[in-house]
From TrEMBL:
<dbReference type="Pfam" id="PF03713">
    <property type="entry name" value="DUF305"/>
</dbReference>
<feature type="domain" description="DUF305">
    <location>
        <begin position="92"/>
        <end position="152"/>
    </location>
</feature>
<keyword id="KW-1133">Transmembrane helix</keyword>
<feature type="coiled-coil region">
    <location>
        <begin position="113"/>
        <end position="148"/>
    </location>
</feature>
<protein>
    <submittedName>
        <fullName>DUF305 domain-containing protein</fullName>
    </submittedName>
</protein>
<feature type="transmembrane region" description="Helical">
    <location>
        <begin position="38"/>
        <end position="59"/>
    </location>
</feature>
<dbReference type="InterPro" id="IPR005183">
    <property type="entry name" value="DUF305_CopM-like"/>
</dbReference>
<dbReference type="InterPro" id="IPR012347">
    <property type="entry name" value="Ferritin-like"/>
</dbReference>
<keyword id="KW-0812">Transmembrane</keyword>
<feature type="transmembrane region" description="Helical">
    <location>
        <begin position="6"/>
        <end position="26"/>
    </location>
</feature>
<keyword id="KW-0472">Membrane</keyword>
<feature type="transmembrane region" description="Helical">
    <location>
        <begin position="65"/>
        <end position="84"/>
    </location>
</feature>
<keyword id="KW-0175">Coiled coil</keyword>
């Protein structure tokens, strides 16, 4: 097997893993590009490269290339893990774009879980309502920031108040 094919397998798998992270969102309208999920896909792809190469070392005979792949994948893993954990690259819009799918997952699991205890059902319904309201608010904020820019002062925020959202069940 060639190293190019190995790289293609890792790249394809990383891209697919990024997409798979959205399969548990409640609805397609809750899927937004998430920089956080991109960093997560990168660290998963890097770890997969390490594991796959370790299992297939007998097929890849170039020691220096193998070491470079192990070191490079370890660096990508460490760097992307740092970026996920620190959130250093995540600003307002990127944060909301990551949080909308996250909230959507809470709706899916709260709505579809086989809940029999009425207290737990009530809690799940409250979560659904809150998550829908917060998704609506984040979508509004994304649109407002795109149209009018960020409200970086208290006066700017007061001039553009966030509407009240209901979060219907």
């Amino acid at each position: 097997m060639s190293y190019g094919r190995f790289a293609a397998m890792i790249l394809a798998s990383t891209v697919i893993m990024y997409g798979l992270m959205y399969l548990n969102t409640y609805e397609l309208g809750h899927v937004f590009f998430s920089e956080t999920r991109a960093w997560m896909a990168l660290y998963m792809g890097a770890m997969m490269a390490i594991i796959m190469l370790a299992f297939m070392l007998g097929m890849y005979k170039k020691t220096k290339v193998n070491i470079a792949i192990f070191v490079g994948a370890a660096v990508v893993f460490a760097g992307s893990l740092f970026l996920v954990r620190s959130q250093n690259t995540i600003a307002d819009e990127a944060w909301m774009s990551a949080m909308i799918p996250h909230h959507s997952i809470a709706i899916l699991t709260s709505e579809r879980a086989n809940i029999e205890d009425q207290r737990v059902r009530e809690l799940a319904d409250e979560i659904i309502k809150a998550q829908r309201r917060e998704i609506d608010e984040m979508k509004w904020l994304l649109d407002d920031i795109e149209t009018n820019g960020r409200a970086t002062t208290e006066a700017e925020a007061e001039a553009r108040p966030v509407p009240e959202f209901e979060g219907e069940l």
